[in-house]
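Worked example

This section walks through a single chain of length 230. The input is the sequence exactly as stored; nothing has been trimmed or padded.
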Amino acid sequence: MFRHFQRYLLTGVITIIPILVTVLVFDFFLRVLSNFGKPTVRAIALWVRDFSPELSRWLLEMPWLQSLLAILFTVLAIYLLGWGVSVVVGRRLWGLLESLVERIPLVTKVYGSTKQLVQSFQRRPDLQRVVLIEFPHKEMRAVGFVTETMVDEVNGVELASVYVPTTPNPTSGYLEIVPKERLITLDWTVDEAMTFIISGGTVSPGRIRWDDAGESPSTPAQTASKGQGK
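Given that input, the structure is written out below as tokens.
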């Protein structure tokens, strides 16, 4: 009875984990969007109180309606921001705002670094390469993204900055500087690589290149069979 219970309990846990991770991720982003938009919803509720007390009461006393409207307002605001910075006037105003942010000592470091990381993926498709690097040691590989290239000023060796995301949260990770000749370029798209990382490797493109020769690492059984063949 105990083994029967344990087996099906484990099966249930394995089945529900992907659903829980998906729910937690979406819940996090929806909460963020909702928190941004709730002050606007409350302000509207107070504004309409004089000529529509019933509507004001609905907006203030129904959390689900307040959250839904907050998310919609936030998405609309992000859309309008994207449209605004695409026109000349909006671009100038955003540039003025950025110049003010850059004058704040600690804030400018965080903002500048984040902006450069996002722009490296958005504006430089030549750097959106998915690669394998030797990490954390030579017998292991990690999936990473090339974000920048540089040259060693002493010996002229070409180097690459590689961002290695962590599983299942790709927003945190490691920054490694690797010689370009040690990079193993994969034919994966960025979406395929991100799916592979977030899923913990359970969802993969089904193909990978282990080294520059395109050979997979030999298993002990393969090594033994090669030795017997010799």
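What to look for: The chain has seven helices and five strands.
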